[in-house]
Amino acid sequence: ALRERAEYYAARGVYSCATMLAERLHAAQHDDASLHLLAECYHHSGCARQCRALLLDNAATRALSAENRFLLAQCCFECGESTETVEVLLADSQQCNVLFVRKEALSTGPEGWYLLGLAMRQLKQVEQAKQCFRNCLQLDRFMWSAFECLCSLGDADAACVFNELTQCHDFAASSTNAAPASAVTGLINSNAKKPANGTPMEIPSNSTSTSTSILPRALVFSDTPESGVTAPQLPAASSGLRITTQPPRVGKKTRGAHRCKDSPAVPKLVFTTTPSPATVERSPRTDAYVNSLFSTLAGAYLMTTRFHPDALLRLDALPLEQYRTPWVLTLVGRLHFQLSQYEQACTAFAQVRRLFPYYLHGMEHYSTALWHLRRHAELSKLAHELSELDSRSPQAWCAIGNCLSLYRDRPNAIKAFKKASQIDPGFAYAHTLAGHELIASDEHEEVNATR
């Protein structure tokens, strides 16, 4: 009865009651199951250090179960103990280098490999981190966060984990505007030229695709937010802003832009053309639908990390119900932002704000796009809305910093960006914006000190 009631309260977020009952249960039984329930109550209550101490105390007297060891590793990672996280996860493999550990040897499963990859990335062990994320995806290809981490680490074969999906229907195959039918094989910078009949097809880096001028579906749902929004009482803007009235073009070294003059050219992506059925049952319950969906999303995301403009075409090939989701619309805005197409980026981000006002991811790029277009009123409105939604989010403080920067209040803008980086030290974009402000203020020594 104690276990059932404790689990009932924990499932409904009443952790104080759940913790009380879990403590009574663990005192009576003192087994792995009761220990896990009590530790989970501590963890969900925000007491990661208390949970860690409880599990370490029990680990000193007996071996922990796989679920308790994973929870201990989670708490260690949240407490900033990356080395200890690695030791806990690799305890049963008797290896200190993950390159020599079989993916089945980790008893904590794919989630254990994912957490181990995060810890290795924190420790600057890039190759070992990549291997961890690969193992995670080989065990469970729907661990999307591992795929994102693998792409962010620059792994050229990131999409190879989705090779099984190439045998299924790809939404891009049925779109007349999309890139050739396909799941990405991850072959980058390949110069092989082969016939297109079921064989690799090369998309050159200097492709004259119309994706950069196509108006995605996100931009035709409705007009941008209401006009006539008045800015709050902020200092009046003065002349001498460091941007021009026209959005900067790709290739310029601009604030918030990801591609610079000395950046490498867009890499060549090779796709595999696969035969596909004429129609697919559009139901989340069918394997063909799920596999096709993740194949298309994986290809689009990988192309985004490679700054490939045809990612817009792959996203446009998604079913409407999937396209009209905050993650996809935000990715569309990010793609336009990377191409310095700030008008289109703002339109896409505005759709996210209109349809999903609770969604914060990507709003830092939205505020920078408004900064480039010198839209004072819209940027002020965005900063106020994000602050009211969550004043402890780095996106809100980036928007505040961009707003202050547009009004030439650089000292306070720098403080806002630093506040964002303090809230989330892993939020790299806040450091980028702070660096731009420091350079604009000729504070080069402080820029070098924060590198």
Describe the protein in words.
The protein has about 450 residues and is mostly helical. The protein has helices at about 1-10, 15-30, 30-45, 50-60, 65-80, 80-90, 110-120, 125-140, 145-150, 285-305, 310-315, 320-325, 325-340, 340-355, 365-375, 375-390, 395-405, 410-425, 430-440, 445-450; strands spanning about 185-190, 200-205, 270. The chain has a 3-stranded antiparallel sheet, covered by helices on one side. α7 packs antiparallel against α8. It is globular. The N and C termini lie far apart (about 55 Å).
Span between termini: 56 Å
Largest sheet: 3 strands, antiparallel
Count the E strands: 3
Low-pLDDT runs of 5+ residues are 165-170, 173-216, 218-253, 257-279
Structural class: mainly alpha
Spatial strand sequence of the major β-sheet:
1-3-2
- Give the overall average pLDDT: 76
Order of helices and strands: HHHHHHHHHEEEHHHHHHHHHHH
Considering DSSP H and I runs of 4 or more, what fraction of the residues is helical?
Answer: 40-55%
Determine the strand fraction and express it as a percent band. under 5%
Radius of gyration: 25 Å
* Apparent shape: globular
Total number of helices: 20
Give a quick summary of the entry.
This protein has 451 residues and is mainly alpha-helical.
Notable features of this structure?
451 residues; mainly alpha; 20 helices; 3 strands; 52% helix
Secondary structure blueprint with pairings:
Elements: H1 2-11, H2 15-29, H3 32-44, H4 48-59, H5 66-78, H6 82-89, H7 109-122, H8 126-139, H9 144-152, E1 183-188, E2 200-203, E3 269-272, H10 287-305, H11 311-316, H12 320-323, H13 326-338, H14 342-355, H15 363-373, H16 376-389, H17 394-406, H18 410-423, H19 428-440, H20 444-449
Antiparallel strand pairs: 1-3, 2-3
Helix pairs in contact: 1-2, 2-3, 3-4, 3-5, 4-5, 5-6, 5-7, 6-7, 7-8, 8-9, 9-10, 13-14, 13-15, 14-15, 15-17, 16-17, 17-18, 18-19
